[in-house]
Design brief:
- The relative contact order is 0.18.
- By secondary structure, the chain is an alpha/beta fold.
- Helix content is 38%, strand content 30%.
- The radius of gyration is 13 Å and the shape is globular.
- The longest helix has 17 residues.
- Strand 2, helix 1 and strand 3 form a beta-alpha-beta unit.
- The chain has one domain: STAS domain (Transcription Regulator spoIIAA, 2-Layer Sandwich).
């Protein structure tokens, strides 16, 4: 198993980009969730980009984090854009029926 890494977070002109690499499973949430929470505290946040292009794996726990993030941003009126992961990762979103309701960018 690949070790979980802390997501890369960058902020520029009200746009926050969070890139998650490797495996997004229960172990990874201990690094990912605090990074997302800190990113959500950014002042003047108007757009949030979640970059999943570096993922090698995602499970139901990771998908749950993405759904909760989307709901939180919608509540706050902040635009979310999701850069999809590789085909085998994106297939997980498709198979559970949420790829169509999340704002994935065209691949």
């Amino acid at each position: 198993m690949e070790a979980s890494r802390t997501p890369t977070v960058s902020m520029s002109d009200g746009v926050c980009t969070v890139a998650i690499d490797g495996e997004f499973d229960m172990a990874a949430t201990f690094a990912v969730e605090p990074a997302l929470e800190r990113a959500l505290q950014a002042p003047d946040l108007r757009q949030f980009i979640l970059d999943l292009s570096g993922l090698t794996f995602i499970d139901s726990v990771g998908i749950g984090v993405v759904i909760r993030l989307a709901a939180e941003l919608e509540t706050r009126g902040i635009e979310l854009r999701i850069v999809p992961g590789p085909r085998h990762v994106h297939r997980v979103f498709t198979s559970v029926g949420i790829a169509q309701v999340l704002p994935f960018e065209p691949g």
